[in-house]
Amino acid sequence: MADRETQDYLSKGIYGNKKTNPDERNKYFGSLRERVYLSMTTEQLISENYIDALKQEIQLHPNQQLLLNGQIDMNKLSPYIKLCQEYNCSFRIVSDEGALRSPLGLIYVSSTAVNETEVDVAVKYPLMTPPKKEDKKPSFFKKLFS
Questions:
Q1: Cβ atoms of residues 107 and 28 within 8 Å
Q2: Is the distance from CB of 8 to CB of 84 less than 8 angstroms?
């Protein structure tokens, strides 16, 4: 038994403490899924179509923290930083290896578990989803008479 405790002590000294849910923590910038109110992919963040959804979420759950992916250009992050300043919301730019591998660009999190059933912005706010552009070809008669 003493050998096992010694081995655990040495492993902890060499490798550090064991982390719970490392894949989940990498995806959510060091946080856990159970603490997330809202998440946006990098493409959704860049498009700025969901900024009103984030605004609504900040109003519903004030005094939480916005985590931004540091791998994204600062010009794309600036509208979200301005929104945080407007609503007195704290934010943090995460640029560790988890942010590099994560498909997410933005996460609105709590310091405690909130267990939201849906956190993806496109699913949680479907009415705010931008309409798809239809590529319609002009009719033959429009081409002919215009």
A1: yes
A2: no
pLDDT in tens, 71-95: 999 999 999 999 999 999 999 999 8
Whole-angstrom distance, CA of residue 106 vs CA of residue 42: 7
Yes or no: say if 40 and 105 are a contact pair by the CB < 8 Å rule.
Answer: yes
Between CA 61 and CA 65, with CA 64 as vertex, the angle to 5 degrees is 135
Per-residue pLDDT at 20 exceeds 60: yes
What are the structure tokens assigned to 26, written together? 């990498």
Distance CA 56, CA 53 (A): 5
φ, ψ of residue 68 in degrees (nearest 5):
-115, 140
Distance (Å, rounded) from C-alpha 107 to C-alpha 69?
A: 9
Contacts (Cβ under 8 Å, ≥6 apart) of 52: 128
